[in-house]
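Try it yourself: sequence plus thymidine-5'-diphosphate, in.
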Amino acid sequence: MAKIKTKWICLNCGYETTGYLGKCPDCGEWGSLTEEKLQKNDNKKGLTVNINFKSEPQLLKNIEIDDAMRFSTGLSEFDRVLGGGLVRGSLVLIGGDPGIGKSTLVLQSSGNIAKKGIKVLYASAEESARQIKLRANRLNVDSENLYIYAETNLDEIQTNINNIKPDVVIIDSIQAVYNSGLTSSPGSVSQVRECCNILMNIAKTCGITVIVVGHVTKDGMIAGPKVLEHMVDTVLYFEGERYKSYRLIRTIKNRFGSTNDVGVFNMEDDGLVEVTNPSELFLAERCESITPGSVVIATSEGTRPLLVEIQALVGPTSYASPRRVATGIEYNRVLQILAVLEKRVGLNLSKHDVYINVVGGINIQEPAADLGVALAVATCARNVIVDPETVIIGEIGLSGEIRSVRQLELRINEAAKLGFKKAIVPKASLPLKNSPKEIKIIGVSRLIEAIASSIPVKEMQNEF
Ligand code: TYD
Ligand code: MG
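Structure, out:
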């Protein structure tokens, strides 16, 4: 019997070594090395799919692309995050928490794709064919061109790809399939990496589109080495709150489109339904009587503007050092905004706890939300309200200046569509070429100015 070797693999960068190390010498991450037992089998089957992939150098002008390079998944929100549809021969990775709806999404899209006469092979390593059939009935998925295959062995899946010759292959999930060439268990770093490698080969050499479902770890990363994300063409994260029915799908990486785009779905009894106007959804629960500390901002992650509510709660602390809690926005960003408020506006928060919440479970990454956060904190601390029909847009610099943001026009248009009457925006981004008439645009260049324009004058004089 062959000797079983052990190796240690870095979860972050995939670095391999024969012994344990506390710190990965390659990427510098601490405690990221995991032990794996492996033994190479010689019975590995080769890839025998027809290869129509030209590997000689070609002149750029001679390379042909046709419209058929992309095809729709039948779900416009999914197409949006993919950059306009699935690209032939690409490898897409969809990550998300268990039960969030990854299998539902891929099954629904495979049904839609198959209906157009494109052959789809849905390989499920987690559910039996019957379970999938039950789900498909519920989702009204039915097509001549959709093959369901419950199998965990990737070699078998490859053989069937050879037989069926599908245009799209779905692997649900990468952590549950294994390659018999390796003895480590399914889901281990080397299995996940090897399987992904094989799938990438299939995608690139045969022009088959491969969609891979991946689980995420406790920290919210796709389980397996970070290199997995480098290998694939597109990385999407499916997220949402467990107790809410809507789901967000977000682009993390896309070789064929913009990143940071979000698609919004609602999980209903018969599957995922697209939400075409998500701002309405995010503002739906906004109270009629607005309380201090509630502000609406217009964020634009990717190509679409989204209106979301930011809430702040500021109150006297009972701890030695005050608490700062941020949900849906980066913690350090909040600390920086608080520091600017303290220094440039004179708002003393050293004896106050500050809680910030982005309503709707959405995670805001862009700095254009800064001004909204600052106004939410300032108004809550002084117990005044921001005019409920005002939308706030702008990035804050350390000297209290308001910096320009991109896609301002798009954001203002979205706000006007939802009935907002006033927009406080960075002066540096003005003037706009064509902005809607129904909304009054106020350009500000300092934080104090922005506070003054959003709060009724009488209250301002007393408080700041
Ligand atoms: P699933 O796609 O199995 O999640 P994942 O593959 O990410 O683990 O989704 C399971 C959840 O979705 C489950 O809690 C039930 C819910 N669901 C609906 O609400 N409606 C539906 O039509 C379907 C198929 C699932
Ligand atoms: Mg699943």
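One thing you can check immediately is this: Residues 395 and 403 are 5 Å apart (CA to CA).
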